[in-house]
Design a protein that fits this description.
It contains nine helices and six strands. The protein is of the alpha+beta class. The N and C termini lie far apart (about 45 Å).
């Protein structure tokens, strides 16, 4: 019986293991924004394998609810995720929370402008040579994520961006207080889905693959409503997404604790 879906078997081999499963893709016109929920699920699977690999080396994730220092870091998101966050604010947040988040976003944008960081992010391409220094300068502003709720908990945890899901510290949580000075090691995922989404959007729109700070993303999306991308039949668009995933160069897992693949001093 036709349920209006194409059921796709997903099988991806990574250095940390294999991801297998199935997904139903609706027979309807979609944009890359509509694929964000699926990308979040895939991110969780990729990250889960990276954490399992770390556990096999007797390394454990030290992140806990309320430990929110990393929520002061520059979180890079793709344009599809920017539109997704805008829709989340408009459609899912209670009015009181929505007003608070919008206020925080405005304050963050102003701080980035005053600090000069916004100008340096005018063209935030994926391969930005200034990325690490910008990340350090951003962290020094001490600017918490606008979605951070009471007691340091994430207010949108089930729908948080891919970059947030990918940051899982393996070193003591106390070191995260200064990730620039301290050697913070994270469980490196084999693939960053924010980059995959950025590449898909670029492919669909004929533009450059770009990332932007989470705090500027909803504002950018609101100003570019007409740039969500051309609608494409769901199964075809999903195939394009998986094509990018299959062509991606998987990151190698760390060889041993403290090995060459450790991500030290990371600001995402």
């Amino acid at each position: 019986m036709d349920d209006g879906m194409t059921h796709v078997k997903v099988s991806i081999k990574t250095p940390h293991g294999e991801i297998e499963g199935g997904i139903g893709v609706p027979h309807q016109l979609m944009t890359s924004v509509d694929l964000v929920p699926g990308a979040l699920d895939l991110t969780d699977n990729i990250v889960g394998l990276a954490i399992e690999h770390a556990n096999s080396q007797d390394l454990r994730v030290s992140c806990r609810k309320g430990c929110s220092i990393c929520c002061n870091q520059l979180v890079p998101v793709s344009k599809p995720e920017a539109f997704f966050l805008l829709d989340l604010i408009r459609e899912r947040l209670p009015p009181k929370i929505r007003k608070m988040v919008k206020g925080r976003l405005g304050i963050a944008a102003a701080k980035l402008g005053e600090s000069g960081i916004a100008a340096r992010l005018d063209k935030p391409t994926i391969l930005d040579e200034d990325h690490d220094q910008v990340g350090e300068d951003y962290f020094k502003l001490g600017m918490p994520c606008p979605f951070l709720a009471d007691q340091g908990a994430c207010g949108i945890h089930p729908l948080r961006p891919t970059a947030c899901r990918e940051y899982n510290a393996l070193t003591p949580a106390a070191l995260c207080a200064d990730p620039v000075k301290n050697q913070v090691r994270v469980a490196l995922p084999a693939l960053k889905m924010s980059m995959v989404l950025a590449q898909l959007y670029a492919q669909e729109t004929g533009t450059a693959a770009e990332l932007m700070p989470l705090v500027l993303a909803p504002g950018w999306a609101a100003e570019h409503e007409e740039e969500r991308g051309p609608p494409v039949e769901g199964p075809e668009l999903f195939g394009r997404l998986m094509g990018i995933v299959s062509r991606a160069g998987w990151a190698k897992p760390p060889e041993s604790p403290g090995g060459p693949e450790a991500d030290e001093g990371s600001t995402r």
